[in-house]
Write a structure and sequence with these properties.
The chain is of the alpha/beta class. It contains 9 helices and 13 strands.
Length: 332
């Protein structure tokens, strides 16, 4: 008589992580996993970059996590709902940032926000809090660097309807639309733009980024009842004011797809880019790259014969975006 054998190995997707514990969705169930010591060793000797071998010796790299939300992983099952992650399968893409420094003298480190994404959705409020377009440009540059599609969502449109602020906001929105970024104007109070946003999220793995207080909870509840409340509960466990996230989670959508909501951050540091890479992450600047008098060596600041500066003067590039570009270069 043959006995039925169960395969102790399975592939899955990381839906949640909290410190050293990972929740992996596999075969219709969720299992709690730890990381194998070999995975940690391989990650440390590669510096977390997958291929460039070096010994991890500094604080920044020791804080890096080899597993991100959205990662596809290979697990060894050790019980009905427990296991160990043995391998992180190759990523299609990722979105990362440089962390803020938790205290003076501390080292910043790379934080992978999510992996294997279909799109990034920056969420900004029309008012309360006032939108910071320079922060949006940071998100856009990070997404462009990782070749991730972007859909911008503006919440709380009901707060500015028929006011002078609305005209200023729509002017800014049009600036991004002309570049090619889709922008959805929404209001959970007036049901504005909710169906459009629901269609944007359905069937895709989306990461929402934005400050606290922009109205993501109300927006998500309007799209799918109860979803925003679940996200809010998770975010409250991270602790307000902390610079590093200890608890991230991906939430499946009833209509298909999933969202990853990131707790509001005060800073979004770019990482991996050199100052000379930034212009290429501004889609409206790309056609002018290499056309300057000094070619690819032009810094696009005060050099004579700069094609990008000329495009700004001719209205082909927004002065606001050009100023944002200069600020981002200084920060790197």
């Amino acid at each position: 008589m043959q006995t039925e054998t169960t395969d102790p190995y399975a592939n899955g997707v990381v839906y949640k992580k909290n410190l050293s514990q990972y929740h992996v969705h596999t075969n219709g169930r969720m299992i709690k996993c730890s990381l194998s010591s070999k995975l940690w060793k391989d990650f440390e000797t590669s510096g977390g970059k997958g291929g460039r071998k070096k010994k991890v010796t500094n604080t920044r790299e020791k804080h890096m996590d080899p597993v991100a939300i959205g990662d596809r992983v290979r697990c060894q099952l050790s019980g009905a709902d427990t296991g160990m992650i043995l391998e992180v399968l190759p990523r299609q893409n990722q979105l990362n940032r440089q962390s803020a420094k938790p205290m003076p003298g501390a080292h910043a480190f790379e934080q992978v926000i999510a992996a294997n994404l279909d799109q990034v959705v920056p969420v900004f409020a029309a008012a309360n809090p006032e939108p910071r377009w320079h922060m949006l440009d940071r998100y856009l540059v990070a997404a462009e660097y990782h070749e991730l599609p972007v859909r911008i969502a503006i919440t709380k449109m009901d707060l500015v309807r028929n006011t002078p602020v609305e005209a200023e906001l729509l002017e800014a929105v049009e600036r991004y639309r002309r570049i090619g970024y889709p922008v959805t104007l929404t209001s959970a109070q007036n049901n504005l733009g909710l169906e459009e946003l629901r269609e944007i999220l359905t069937g895709k793995a989306s990461v929402l980024v934005g400050k606290s207080g922009v109205g993501k909870t109300s927006l998500l509840n309007a799209i799918e009842p109860g979803l925003g409340l679940r996200v809010q509960t998770v975010n409250e466990t991270t602790g307000k004011g902390r610079h590093t996230t200890t608890h991230l989670e991906m939430f499946p959508l009833a209509a298909g797809g999933a969202i990853i909501d990131t707790p509001g951050v005060r800073e979004f540091g770019l990482i991996g880019l050199a100052p000379e890479d930034v212009a290429g992450c501004f889609p409206e600047m790309r056609p002018f790259l290499g056309q300057c008098q000094f070619g690819q060596s032009c810094r696009h600041e005060d050099e004579p014969g700069c094609a990008i500066r000329q495009a700004v003067m001719e209205g082909a590039i927004s002065p606001y975006r050009y100023k944002s570009y200069l600020r981002l270069k200084v920060d790197l």
